[in-house]
Amino acid sequence: MGGSWARLVYCSLRQTMRPTVLLAMTTRWLPMVRLAMAFNKAGFTVVAVCPPRHPLEKTQAARETYTYDSLAPLRSIASAITASRPDLIVPGDDLATMQLHALYEREFNRGGKCSPICCAIERSLGSPSSFPQVYARTGLLEIAQEEGIRIPKTEVLTEVNQLREWGVRTGFPAVLKSNGSSGGEGVRIVHSLEEAERAFRTLQAPPLLARAAKRALVDGDKTLILPALLRRRSGLNVQEYVSGHEATSTVACWQGTVLAGLHFEVLNKTTPTGPASVMHLIDSCEMSTVAEKIVRRLNLSGIIGFDFMLEEQTDNPYLIEVNPRATQVGHLNLGPGRDLPAALYAALTGEVIRVAPKVTENRTIALFPQEWKRNPESPFLQSGYHDVPWEEPELIRAFAPGAGKHAALNFDKERVRALSPIGLPNR
Question: Residue 63's domain is classified under what CATH number?
Fold first, then answer.
């Protein structure tokens, strides 16, 4: 009787409290700051485990931050989970997701799946049986094929001879990808065997010690030190090139069910293989179905990204990659069924989804500061919705110094005038 009463009191207290989301980050990626702000607006208490001097500290979005130690990553993430007791954990990059999976395995081996850390990770990311699958690019695409999803041919590469055999069987162009990379750093589009062999050697090579030391000293990022010292080589995949244009989806899901989703066609990119800088919101039944099938098959929870190529002749989407983490558009509220933090808040609390005003009616989104840095004269900065975090001027100063001087940001004079410390005359 006493135990039942205690559980009832606990549940009642949880319903009156703001649920806590822990953002797990190994890099200083700006989109995670935007996501923290969005979670805050949706009703969450936001905490984060992140590298020192993270831009999140320039905002009021997080109640507390815990230091991520790249030389003792599992210990620092475990400490943050123990201290904050989150209702939800959202990884912000591939390495953070991998380390959460590794932490689950460590804690499971120590105390079983009922340990508080295991419970928090499983509740947040979904079935532990899916953890190895979401990072096996070839295996995941094989699962997609079993689900009737359109995919390009993909193979694992362990030696250069396999690449030569691929060239004979499939030909070029092709796409080489290194495991665990993100933001386009580990991707090369190759058009000949000679180019492919050069890319293979570059992508597979361990990080240079000088590069690892520079990143550690200048950026405070020590994640490359151990791979550099241990001469750890990256795993590679080769994928058939699909001629067309890129598209992307990001969804919020809970226990194998998609709750909300955003689907975009990519209009501009920061670099040919880098992240998008301008996107156009689209309605795609097939992309929605792909997300639903993968989420259901792997029983996933949290925020998941999907990358596609829309075939040039038919516009048919080919699934090329699944990203088991937050993506750079997850903070955007674009209306009912398109507000990811609100959907996760409702799933955790059992409340009806809170309907908040969408950020824009414009379907073309110019991401800040990506498109402004790519081309300050870009017409999309005027014709599209320029997603500038006006409410956080310190963030704008940090990521786009001098931006307030530029005409491309001068379409809202009252907001730009508030940024006069970065150079705009107050007149």
Answer: 3.40.50.720
CATH of the domain at 176: 3.30.1490.20
- Give 130-151 pLDDT, tens digit per residue: 998 887 777 888 899 999 999 9
The token duo for 199 is: 């890319």
Residue 416 lies in a domain: no
Q: Which of 248, 331, 254, 255 is nearest to 290 (CA)?
A: 248
| Single-letter residue type at 218 | V
Residue among 150, 203, 151 nearest 176 (CA): 203
How far apart CA 87 and CA 124 sit, in angstroms, is 8
Report pLDDT digits (tens) over 17-32.
Answer: 899 999 999 999 999 9
Count: domains in the chain: 3
Q: How far apart are the first and last CA of the chain?
A: 70
138-142, 302-306, 364-368: the lowest-pLDDT one: 138-142
- Helix extents (H) in 222-325: 225-230, 285-298
Q: Per residue in 35-45, pLDDT tens?
A: 999 999 999 99
Rounded distance between C-alpha atoms, residue 185 and residue 378, angstroms: 24
Q: How many CB atoms lie within 10 A of CB 208?
A: 11
Cα angle, residue 348 at apex, residues 347 and 352 outer, rounded to 5°:
50
How far apart (Å, rounded) are the C-alpha atoms in residues 300 and 134? 10
